Amino acid sequence: xxxxxxxxxxxxxxxxxxxxxxxxxxxxxxxxxxxxxxxxxxxxxxxxxxxxxxxxxxxxxxxxxxxxxxxxxxxxxxxxxxxxxxxxxxxxxxxxxxxxxxxxxxxxxxxxxxxxxxxxxxxxxxxxxxxxxxxxxxxxxxxxxxxxxxxxxxxxxxxxxxxxxxxxxxxxxxxxxxxxxxxxxxxxxxxxxxxxxxxxxxxxxxxxxxxxxxxxxxxxxxxxxxxxxxxxxxxxxxxxxxxxxxxxxxxxxxxxxxxxxxxxxxxxxxxxxxxxxxxxxxxxxxxxxxxxxxxxxxxxxxxxxxxxxxxxxxxxxxxxxxxxxxxxxxxxxxxxxxxxxxxxxxxxxxxxxxxxxxxxxxxxxxxxxxxxxxxxxxxxxxxxxxxxxxxxxxxxxxxxxxxxxxxxxxxxxxxxxxxxxxxxxxxxxxxxxxxxxxxxxxxxxxxx
Length: 448
Ligand SMILES: Nc1ccn([C@@H]2O[C@H](COP(=O)(O)OP(=O)(O)OP(=O)(O)O)[C@@H](O)[C@H]2O)c(=O)n1
Ligand SMILES: O=C(CO)[C@H](O)[C@H](O)COP(=O)(O)O
Fold this sequence. Notes:
Blueprint: E1 45-51, E2 68-69, E3 72-73, H1 74-83, E4 88-95, H2 100-109, E5 115-119, H3 124-141, H4 146-149, E6 153-156, H5 166-179, E7 181-187, E8 193-195, E9 201-204, E10 211-220, H6 221-230, H7 233-238, H8 242-250, E11 255-258, H9 269-282, E12 286-290, H10 295-308, E13 314-318, H11 327-330, E14 334-340, H12 346-357, E15 366-374, H13 386-399, E16 403-411, H14 416-436, E17 445-447
Helix pairs in contact: 3-6, 6-8, 10-14
The protein binds cytidine-5'-triphosphate (CTP) and ribulose-5-phosphate.
Ribulose-5-phosphate binds at residues 124, 158, 213-215, 240-242, 265.
């Protein structure tokens, strides 16, 4: 984690781990903070996301941009990061020809807006160039709107860097407009050395003098367009740096801006796991307990609320999700349904239908936990064979719609100590299920 600001993480101890994003739902809001930032950008800004690579270094069959992270392709997270920025007018995603249909499906399935898909090239520079040219073509087709609407600034960002924030994009866009080019940099993690042809040390660079060039980068349309018109086949084939093309072919010195460690690029297989764990941290840890109004359920809900205090999970209690309480469905809450004595899953089914009706699980998995409280002399539901099977079936169907259903069973006890231990276990299991969103435990009836 950063010391005081993201930029102070100079040794880059954990490049994958961001500060808890500002979009994290707070207890006060109970919902992601999607307030528009106080940024005014009075010129058109478009984005090119190169996504035409094969991801060889991951060793996976599927190119990393299409790998599933929490049930959603990585590239969808990157697109969303740009889409939610109100002053970005269009996004061009560049993909290899054979993945254009898949990309179109992803756009439809996750309801992305402002996105155009264009075919990529053999190298990253060729792909980016195609994206830039497509921006020009789009505006030509619009005829008289050309002058006003053509992107003044083009932001280029690797599709495999999903954690980019609006305030940093703003800095890049403004600097690009003023200077012609701007790019993100980070302190070097390791020293850069050059080697002799025999594999010995030739010389080493003074690390403090150098920076790692990251993404996003921003350019005025004219600079990046001209740079690609003028650069050589060798640049297209072997080049790795757009800022260099702007300098060499347009004489434009890029403004370098130190970015947060979260700009890191998914390159290896393990980076996908790191991305998933970061995304999980950004998801809501809050849950709404539905008691159905029963006194025993309310007592359990109160006890749970106290017990989770130390576990970084926030709980609200409501008798139902009707009327004003339906607000929980629209905000980023997870759900805990307490059922007392009867072992019927109809209450969970009702929550699933409500969630579906508002399309709540489109972008992120929602957790629904069924807590079944057995009375003192009641037969445990796990011994009623139909229940574990019913919850498994219900959960399997819900999982296809990105809703993760889990079950927990606990027994009422006259022994206070025993009861408190059970409540604590429910609190711990609940917190863990919400935090981990484990697909493997979906449909399981856990014992507290
Ligand atoms: N012909 C290419 C090659 C790369 N890229 C994109 O450029 C970004 C950064 O490149 P990199 O991390 O090198 O991706 P890959 O080339 O896919 O990975 P690898 O080098 O491991 O094969 C990625 O979003 C990648 O899809 C592209 O659009 N067109
Ligand atoms: O380094 C870069 C700065 O321009 C680019 O971000 C790019 O990600 C390089 O990708 P590759 O891993 O293919 O070199």
